[in-house]
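Pinned message: reference record for DUF2484 family protein
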Amino acid sequence: MSGALTAACLWVVVAALAAMMPRRFHWTAAHLLTVSGIALLGWVTWAEGPIWGFVCLLAGASVLRWPLLRLARRIRG
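Predicted structure (tokens):
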């Protein structure tokens, strides 16, 4: 497994650990995971190709679904 996919798996583990933390840390962790996930998504897409990049995008969106829903509500108005 390449370094990019290993880092993506580690990102998922960190996201799962962040979900187990007390509620007051969730949004801080979500913002940090979003920022690091964007960079990681670019790395995976560059190293492994667009199919693996899309798979990682779907995995990240499923982990961070609440920030995405709030963003969609804000955009809709």
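Pinned by admin. Summary line: The radius of gyration is 13 Å.
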